[in-house]
Structures are given as structure tokens and as C-alpha cells.
Amino acid sequence: MTPGIRRSQPDDLAAICAIYAHHVRYGLATFEEEPPDVAELARRRAELLARGLPHLVAELDGAVAGYAYAGPYRPRPAYRHTVEDSVYLAPEHIGRGVGRALLAQLIFACTAAGYRQMIAVIGDSANAPSIGLHAALGFREVGLLRAVGFKLGRWVDTVLMQRALGPGDTELPSPRG
């Protein structure tokens, strides 16, 4: 079954919070160690939306199966044409095409908004599903940061992957405020 992808809504935040809490507690996709509450995730979502960045959910059988968003890659102005993607799935929906559908729509939305590069910072160099997902959608590995995080009792690497959006660096960007 193909998931429906849409913009997230405030009513989705409880499901988003539950999905993210699972990854915070048991996974290495995020280096947060304490799950934020719904109010904090609402604040983060509002900040992204205020910047005009996409915050999406995937639905299967009427339930939120995952979510994805793009955020600024770095805060300094020279990075204003580059975004970082984040994709989180409910554990029971991993391997069902939900991540691919979310990331494809996120790439589309960021390209349409005029961004030129997308960066993936993937926790755990052994995270083959996330690395494979990004590679399948045109990302290439550009770096490995060894042992930069310590979570769940072990040192954890991050894999950096990058994908051009639209014309990438072949044309100068339009002015962005």
C-alpha cells in the first residue's frame, strides 16, 4: 500500500511525538537522549513552518506512519540555500516504502522552494536502511565523522550524504531574504 503524504497538522503532533520518542530511546538516528514532549515538537514545527520549510507526514490506514521535515543546514547566512533532511518512521512501518515516499516529497518541496542542496546527517555508519534510502534518491556519501556521538553505551559515527536540488550549483541562486 502506498502511503499518503501531506503537510503535517497540529493534530498529528501526538503521533509524531510517539514516533520520535521511540527513536530517541532506542535508536541512533537522532543523538537526542531525552524525548521532547508534544509542546516542544510543536514549537520546533512552528519554527520550521515560519521559515517556509516543509514538515510532512505519511499516512497508512488513516494513521501517521512517519514524518519528515527539512531544516536549515547551518545558521550562518551563506548556508541559506542548503537544507538538512530528517525522516522518522513508526517501527512497524519500516521497510514498507514510507521513508522513500516521504523523502521523495521532501526533495520535491525543497526543490520547488528554490533550495539547491540537501544534506543528510545519518546517525550510525551501520544504518544501512537510511544510507540505502538516501542513495536510492540521489544522495552520495560525502563524509564520515567517526565516534562523534556517544549514545546507548557506545560511540556512534555519522555519515554525511548530499544531493543537489534543481540546478544545484550549475546556476547562481535567486536572491533569498
Explain what this protein looks like in three dimensions:
The chain is α+β, with helices and mostly antiparallel strands. It is built from 4 helices and 7 strands; from the N terminus they run βααβββαβαββ. It has a 7-stranded mixed β-sheet. The protein is globular and about 40 Å long. About 30% of the residues are buried. The mean pLDDT is about 95.
The end-to-end distance, rounded to whole angstroms, is 40 Å
Q: What oligomeric state is this? A: single chain
How many distinct helices? 4
Q: Could you spell the SSE succession in H and E letters?
A: EHHEEEHEHEE
- Average per-residue pLDDT, rounded, comes to 96
How are the strands ordered across the major sheet? 1-2-3-4-5-7-6
- Beta-strand fraction estimate: 25-35%
> Biggest sheet, in brief?
7 strands, mixed
Please give a handful of descriptors for the protein shown.
177 residues, alpha+beta, 7-stranded mixed sheet, 4 helices, 7 strands, 33% strand, globular
Gist of the model:
With 177 residues, this protein is an alpha+beta fold. Helices cover 29% and strands 33% of the residues.
What's the SSE blueprint?
Layout: E1 4-7, H1 13-26, H2 38-50, E2 55-60, E3 63-72, E4 82-89, H3 98-112, E5 117-123, H4 128-136, E6 140-151, E7 154-164
Parallel strand pairs: 4-5
Antiparallel strand pairs: 1-2, 2-3, 3-4, 5-7, 6-7
